[in-house]
Every structure is written in structure tokens, then in C-alpha cells.
Fold this sequence. Notes:
By secondary structure, this protein is an alpha/beta fold. The protein has a single domain (6-193), classed as Maf protein, CATH 3.90.950.10. 36% of the residues lie in helices and 26% in strands. The chain is built from seven helices and seven strands; from the N terminus they run E-H-E-H-H-E-E-H-E-E-H-E-H-H. The protein has helices at residues 13-21, 35-44, 49-65, 92-102, 138-148, 176-180, 185-193, and strands at 6-9, 27-29, 71-81, 84-86, 106-117, 120-133, 169-173. Strands 1, 2, 3, 4, 5, 6 and 7 form a seven-stranded mixed β-sheet that branches. Helix 1 links the parallel strand 1 (6-9) and strand 2. The longest helix has 17 residues, at 49-65. The two termini are 15 Å apart.
Amino acid sequence: xxxxxxxxxxxxxxxxxxxxxxxxxxxxxxxxxxxxxxxxxxxxxxxxxxxxxxxxxxxxxxxxxxxxxxxxxxxxxxxxxxxxxxxxxxxxxxxxxxxxxxxxxxxxxxxxxxxxxxxxxxxxxxxxxxxxxxxxxxxxxxxxxxxxxxxxxxxxxxxxxxxxxxxxxxxxxxxxxxxxxxxxxxxxxxxxxxxxxxx
Length: 199
């Protein structure tokens, strides 16, 4: 029996790199979901960052699953600092301000992934990592912002753990792939069970 098609309902280059690196055959697709509307509504209802990540992953997967056959992967990540949801910084100045505010303190990254088929969620998981930023200097921050530039604006935390951003931290606990935005090990196990990957 032919394995089902796998579709990644995400515009994230980082998630595509993670899936490709793991040897998962997939096609990318834009979910078309207006994330801001869902976030605003859920925040008004008192939802926390973890619940919002899970809901966004589900809605992205479902949006594409209603249009395309196969297994549709939706994913999202939220940053939880002092109990509040933080979005991707809009400017390098905002990124620098956020990093300085988190300096010497702990924050959490919630990464959710959901798989939909025929308009229904068939598998999902949520991974939470805790990260502590070291007490870095202003000189380090200035050099870091200059070196990374616009790449920082694609991450909710304004860092890439797979790059120089790892130097920001004194302590990291949690799933590495979850920090990259796509909890991978459970997803791979699910895809093996569906015949997409060899057992």
C-alpha cells in the first residue's frame, strides 16, 4: 500500500530544514491561517501561551487538511516570559530590548505539532523547554545583534539555538527539536506507524 503524502502547513524555513534533515518526504503548503485573530481571541478568553501554541498547530493542520489529501503537519511555537505570550520581534531594536529584558532570567518555549487527515486531528503533542539566559554584557548583545541581523526577526525568542544564539544561555532543559520549533521524535514515531518512514 502506498504511503500517504505528507504536507507541512508552515511557512517556517527552520521547520522545513528539520523535517528534511530527518529524511521525511513532504511538500510545504501555506495554511492561510490568520494567527493574530486566533491569538487575540484566545488571549481575551484567558488562554496561556502553551494552549495558544497547541491551538495554532491544530488550526494550521486542519486548514490545509480540508483542501489536500494526506497527512498534514501543523506546528507552532510560543514564548512564555513572566506568564505572558511574546510574538516575534518586529524590529532589531525590539529584539535587542527583549533579549536585554530576559537577560539573567528564565523563560519557556512551548512547541506544538498536530497532524490532520481528512479534516480531523489524528495525532498531536506539546513540548515545553525552559531556558535561562546568562548575564551577558551590553557589548556582547550589540555584537550578537550585528552578527545575526534580520535572522533574529524570524524567531519568537530573537535567537537561533543552532547558531550564535546558543551563547546567550547558561542553562537549557527540554527537547532540542522543540526549541527549533518542531518536536520531532514523537512525530517520527507517528509517521513510521503510518508507513511514511521505515519501521
